[in-house]
Write a structure and sequence with these properties.
Blueprint lengths: L3 H30 L8 E4 L2 E4 L3 H9 L1 H11 L7 E2 L1
Helix pairs in contact: 1-3
């Protein structure tokens, strides 16, 4: 018999995992740039972190891009990110 609870738990785990990864990325960015970003301003797709911020904030983040990417790969093992845009 089909159990809807078990089916929906799969999506719930995925959503919670995504939110956790975003919070981790926000903390890493804040550590290197002292910039606060909201979770709604981050989207992770195709191994890329897409930021929806002003050009000034984006430029400061891009200055520290290599350090941020290095720390993301070392501190979040189940997330593969190769670029920030």
């Amino acid at each position: 018999m089909f159990n809807i609870k078990n089916y929906l738990e799969k999506f719930s785990k995925s959503i919670h995992s995504s939110e956790y990864q975003k919070r981790q990325i926000i903390e890493i960015i804040k550590k290197h740039t002292q910039i606060n970003i909201f979770p709604n301003d981050i989207e992770i797709k195709n191994y890329t972190v897409c930021l929806k911020t002003s050009p000034g904030i984006s430029n400061k983040i891009f200055i520290y891009k290599s350090k941020i990417l290095e720390e993301i790969s070392s501190s979040i093992p189940n997330l593969k990110v190769v670029d920030i845009r």
